Amino acid sequence: MAFKITIPDILKSQPTVWDKLYSIYNSGRIGTAYCFSGPSGSGKQGMALAFAALINCEFSEKFPDCECLSCRRFNSLQHEHLHMIVPLPTLSQNSKDTLDKKSIDIFIKELDKKRNNLFHKIRIPKSTRIILQSIRNLRKSLYLRSALKGRKIAVIFESELLCTGSGESANALLKILEEPPQSTTLILVTDFKDKLFPTIISRCQHIQFPPLEDNIVEGMLKEKGIDDEKIKWISFLSEGNFVTASSIADKNWGEINTFFNFISDLMIADDYKKLYKFASDYTNMSRTNTPEFQFHFYLIQRWLLGALHLKNGIHDSLTETDLGIGINRFLSRYPGVNLYELNMLVDSVLEGFNQNANMALLLTNFIIQLQRELGKTNTR
Ligand SMILES: [Zn+2]
Question: Of 15, 204, 232, 265, which residue has the fewest beta carbons closer than 10 angstroms?
């Protein structure tokens, strides 16, 4: 069940940030470059698009309910002044600078999802960086004179991926930042500001996003017609991340609960056959059902966070459900367990997955490392 999240929803979700952006707009001194950073799912991408729309709106006093031509185009993410940059797969030598058809088809579908839900993150498989060609094309279109009034806006999603590899994309962007084209604003959006080069950061005005508050997440879900019972568990699973909240809104608690119980069992399993079956099943899933694979690993991390909370006596609604029993069993069997270390193991799987690592190898290694880590503290 998909619901629509549009610009007015985004503004309500981060009122303090919006006030700040609105006063920048009102001052008439709109900067050349901004960096929107903060935790995942806090509305940065949507807010960048909202700010871009406001800057180009013809009747800003009516914004965000305005229906001017510019606003209508921004709402459909099809404004001539809007340039969105996302991570893409590396182009092959003979591709003549164009994406393969499969990636283009996926991009079109992803764009459609984003149009419907500004919290949706555009994902194209095998995209591990912002490629140089994207920045070169951006440069061309930003320096081109436009007959259209208003301001050109480039929004670079997951902008830390400019700086991977040899950083050639970051350096190309730096040249644009050093000699900014007229009437242009660049907005770099990132969950990981520390991964951006300091030379880039220093040229941007910084806008920090706090995580969404629980009551805001719950209010938005209620407004979208989700029932109260469901809102409760979506809220404690998503921890203020609305990207996660909207992706789990079409799940039911039964299937999530079953998976959590599966993890509770897996964590105390010392039967290698069972563990290797997990590795092989999830290798398959990483190929056939990418979103489900990522979601399950997200739930493993959430389970570990629950264990950490329980161990340290921190309130967590997750451990107050039946799941607390399984987590308790795990903690009493491995009282000295290093949960940070386990969390890092899960992180390494997700990172390898994003970088197209060999999943069979990666998951087998995960199982071995997991057993080694747990073996250190086994009381039996
Ligand atoms: Zn307008």
Answer: 15
